[in-house]
Write a structure and sequence with these properties.
The longest helix is centred in the C-terminal third of the chain and has 15 residues. The chain is α/β, with parallel strands linked by helices and 305 residues long. The chain has a single domain, classed as Ribokinase (UDP-N-acetylmuramoyl-L-alanine:D-glutamate ligase), CATH 3.40.1190.20. Helix content is 33%, strand content 29%. The protein has nine helices and 15 strands. 43% of the residues are buried. A nine-stranded mixed beta sheet has the order 6-4-1-10-11-12-13-14-15, with helices on both faces.
Length: 305
């Protein structure tokens, strides 16, 4: 079993909302389906889903970010209050809490509707000061960057401090530049995010060379590129390791990246080596995609596969 670690999660906070029902006819008003909703469900999303994954895996979790003063914020706080998570959000009444509404017909997503204000908060300095006041209390930090404007303005100073003080940092990145993530311990882009920075590769050899280049340019200890059905590739200074995807039925990939970064971080901080930690996260991802929506994996599930 994995020992309990103290982990700080910093990132873009969201509420994932699901409206589920069935479509039986087309609207007479426009050529669109009419869905009869029979179930509504809210779940923590974004960085909040990372925190939920860690908590369900038995970690001691503190979650920070910025939310608005609105219904979505109230629903998110109510959701998190039922979990074993210490929630320390910065409130900005001038922004909307990010809300992703997914409308689902018999387990098939019809549409996603987003409510969000990107790069609009004036409270990022308050968030930075708050984090720096308790940063030394943790075994490691996860940055869950969904490019909504919370992580990038504060991350450089925090990463520099963490490197100087040997605090491990694990980052799920997004955006058109990864320069702000320099000096992080581990960076985990998916293949699409990696290719936005490094370009598409014509073959495996070119992909490996580009991975080594990113590792060096950003002064990373580890780079993990997740490749969906093609598995994952881990880059370090002395070797490159590939992990085959486990053959499982894929039901919903929502939140699979959150599961990977959560399980990998928890396992590594508890004393597992990096290869075993990635291996465990690979198994956890295969379990996650068999469930609907953003989901988590418990230690009992992971170690009884």
């Amino acid at each position: 079993m994995i020992n309990r670690q103290k982990i700080l999660v910093v990132g873009d906070l969201m509420l994932d909302r699901y409206w589920m029902g069935s479509v039986n006819r087309i609207s007479p008003e426009a050529p669109v389906p009419i869905i009869d909703i029979n179930l509504c469900e809210d779940k923590p999303g974004g960085a909040a889903n990372v925190a939920k994954n860690l908590s369900d895996f038995g970690m001691e979790v503190t979650l920070v970010g910025i939310i608005g003063k609105d219904e979505a914020a109230d629903d998110l706080k109510r959701n998190i209050s039922s979990l074993d998570i210490k929630f320390l959000p910065i409130i900005d009444p001038n922004i909307r809490t990010t809300l992703k509404l997914r409308v689902i017909d018999r387990n098939k997503q019809l549409i996603r509707i987003d409510h969000e204000d990107i790069n609009a908060s004036s409270k990022v300095d308050d968030l930075n000061k708050s984090i720096m006041s308790y940063i030394n209390d943790f075994d490691g930090i996860i940055f869950s960057d969904y490019d909504k404007g919370v992580v990038k303005p504060i991350i450089k100073n925090i990463l520099d401090y963490c490197k100087e003080n040997n605090i491990k940092t694990f980052i799920d990145p997004k955006g058109t530049s990864f320069d702000c993530y320099k000096n992080s311990f581990l960076l985990k882009p998916n293949l699409k995010e990696f290719e936005i920075i490094m370009g598409k590769s014509n073959n495996k050899e070119e992909f490996i060379e580009k991975g080594k280049m990113m590792l060096s340019n950003l002064s990373l200890e580890y780079l993990l590129v997740t490749e969906g059905k093609d598995g994952m590739t881990l880059f370090s200074n002395n070797k490159v390791e590939h992990f085959q995807a486990l053959q499982q039925d894929v039901f919903d990939v929502t939140g699979a990246g959150d599961t990977v970064i959560s399980i990998l971080t928890a396992c590594f901080l508890s004393g597992e080596d990096i290869t075993k930690s990635v291996d465990y996260s690979n198994i956890a991802a295969s379990l996650s995609v068999q469930k609907l929506g953003s989901t988590s994996v418990s230690q009992d599930e992971l170690f009884n596969v």
